[in-house]
Design brief:
- By secondary structure, the protein is α+β, with helices and mostly antiparallel strands.
- It has one domain: Aminopeptidase, CATH 3.40.630.
- Strands 1-2-3-4-5-6-8-7 form an 8-stranded mixed sheet, sandwiched between helices.
- A hairpin with a 2-residue loop joins strand 3 and strand 4.
């Protein structure tokens, strides 16, 4: 699969580390993640609601979560985490594909959804991606996941393929 990408780049994203106040008045810290944060993320994913899993991720079992995180929290991927009161409550990542583009994935604990944390995680991750020279980002999302689709559209993603039960969306971060 080779995703289509919009012609015009979108910019003006903030870069982590940064802080913001979410829609519930909570002070959220967004940080860049390295392998030192795997324990925090394992704890977050252990609390992840099974109904919020999509496309088989995050895994359910603790050992599978740890193995998955070790694969995505590496030097080739960009990862950001949202912390509230010292606890990880959201995680977003850019994972390189075989075409030189990056796939985006994001996960926010259910009790923190709908409070702008996902939006700010994605914006921060895209800003870091721009800083690192990433030009093309894509994702797939279940077409009935209206909150996620609205989030992606709000930050500048465009639907590039809607032929299956998943939407494919893409954004261009810079000219190539």
């Amino acid at each position: 699969m080779t995703p289509e990408f919009p012609d015009e780049p979108v910019d003006d994203f903030p870069t982590p580390p940064r802080e913001f106040t979410d829609a519930e008045g909570r002070d959220i810290v967004v940080e860049r993640v390295d392998s030192d944060a795997i324990d925090d993320l394992c704890e977050m994913y252990a609390d992840f609601n099974p109904e919020d899993r999509a496309q088989g991720v995050p895994p359910v079992r603790e050992d599978a979560i740890e193995e998955w995180l070790e694969n995505v929290v590496d030097d080739d991927c960009l990862n950001v985490v949202a912390f509230y009161d010292g606890d990880a409550v959201g995680h977003a990542m850019l994972v390189p594909d075989t075409t030189g583009a990056f796939e985006l994935a994001i996960f926010v604990l259910r009790e923190y959804q709908g409070a702008l944390i996902g939006t700010e995680l994605v914006r921060s991750l895209l800003g870091w991606g721009q800083e690192e020279g990433i030009t093309r980002v894509w994702l797939s999302v279940e077409r009935w996941n209206d909150p996620a689709v609205r989030l992606y559209e709000k930050v500048g993603f465009e639907t590039t393929d809607s032929a299956s039960f998943e939407l494919e969306m893409a954004i261009r971060l810079a000219e190539t």
